[in-house]
């Protein structure tokens, strides 16, 4: 009996403890149990993606119906700049064959994504919400509200300040035929080029205004602090102006304005992070 017991002990010692099971079907059951949550998550993700794509498609159709009116609205800064330079002059936008049609499709797609963003954000939140604690859900609510408003603030800055300034700057380089110059420079604007310019500026400034949200969320996660932002300020300023040069069209005016705006948002983010840190520290002190 003693020899048999020693043999059993040696056999069990040679086998890793995690594969010693009373029932050989235990391993298969564990695999199946782990596979079920994964499949449920994938099914849930597919449903959220389908709803988001459907929202974008419906918004695209609606925006395309009013795409000409939307494009006319975007041309207001150009029209005002032309009239301000030469009173009574008619603003002209040129287009190649089918260029206006494809420009309307592009505008409708971008506008459709913007219009459908609340639905997309809601579906994303509903997908990740089951894995969040109640205090984490409460912390996310303000940011879900702030994101579209900050994006609209970036669009308003482009529409009312940046774009008129850029157009006026471009028009200032024209030379009239009656000046006696050997060469006459005339601004020739195409529909697609104008749309690409204003959309690039809108997207760049819209996302730039999300900087306080991103940095504050990183502070809540404990990744950064206000002191780390202050110590990295000089490097952040260099990175900000490099990003501004990359995100904007190749004109120095819009690059400088975007860089200055990002710098101001960075300084505002330091204040926001400091406020969040004090609130978190107060909650932790009350919990103790």
From TrEMBL:
UniProt GO cellular component terms: TAT protein transport complex
Region called Disordered, residue ranges: 1-26
Membrane topology: Multi-pass membrane protein
Compartments, record wording: Cell membrane; Membrane
Keyword set, alphabetical order: Cell membrane, Membrane, Protein transport, Translocation, Transmembrane, Transmembrane helix, Transport
Ranges annotated as biased composition (Basic and acidic residues): 1-11
GO BP term, pick one: protein transport by the Tat complex
One Pfam short name: TatC
Stretches that traverse the bilayer: 49-67, 107-128, 140-162, 194-220, 232-250, 256-276
Chief place of localization: membrane
PROSITE patterns linked: TATC
Subunit (UniProt): The Tat system comprises two distinct complexes: a TatABC complex, containing multiple copies of TatA, TatB and TatC subunits, and a separate TatA complex, containing only TatA subunits. Substrates initially bind to the TatABC complex, which probably triggers association of the separate TatA complex to form the active translocon.
Membership in a protein family: Belongs to the TatC family.
Record's function text: Part of the twin-arginine translocation (Tat) system that transports large folded proteins containing a characteristic twin-arginine motif in their signal peptide across membranes. Together with TatB, TatC is part of a receptor directly interacting with Tat signal peptides.
Official protein name in the record: Sec-independent protein translocase protein TatC
Native source species: Aquisalinus luteolus
